[in-house]
Amino acid sequence: MADNGLVTLTSVHDAKTTLDRLTGVLQAKGVTIFATIDHASGAASVGLPLRPTTVVIFGNPAAGTPLMQAAQTAGIDLPLKALVWEAADGTTHLTYNDPAWIVARHALGSEAQKAVTALGAAIAAFAQHATTQV
After folding, report:
1. The CATH number of the domain where 120 resides is what?
2. Cβ proximity of 75 and 81 under 8 Å
3. pLDDT tens for each residue of 94-125
């Protein structure tokens, strides 16, 4: 994790495939996808170019609610988000906030640790699935 709490993985797939693999694994695991925001489409709608850049907002109230119970301000960082984006060199990346960063940002106590550990493992697994051949 970098100091800003972002975790970025490089994908072996293009942006569309990475996005499809991410949403597919989320759906398969029963995770709610609340929204998908296609920033490139938004940019195109006003005549501006932007490489593929899509945010997926997803979560599970059973996993996120304990964090908000500990500090309601954690709701600004929940549900979880993942950004699938294409760099200038054509490589595709998937970036997300490390749940441990959310804990630090909102000064969540040890009571939130179980939820954070589970969220961290889940989002890492989803990102790994989306970005690798396996």
Report:
1. 3.30.310.70
2. no
3. 999 999 898 889 998 877 888 888 899 999 99
CA distance 40 to 66: 34
1 within some domain: no
* Residue located via tokens 């549900």: 79
Return the HEC string of 85-112. Answer: EECCCCCEEEEEECHHHHHHHCCCCHHH
In this structure, are residues 1 and 100 in contact, taking their beta carbons and an 8 Å threshold?
yes
Give the span between the Cα atoms of 11 and 14, in whole angstroms.
7
0.90 surpassed by pTM: yes
Q: Which structural domain range is residue 58 located in?
A: 6-131
Q: Where are the alpha helices (DSSP H) in 29-70?
A: 39-45, 61-70
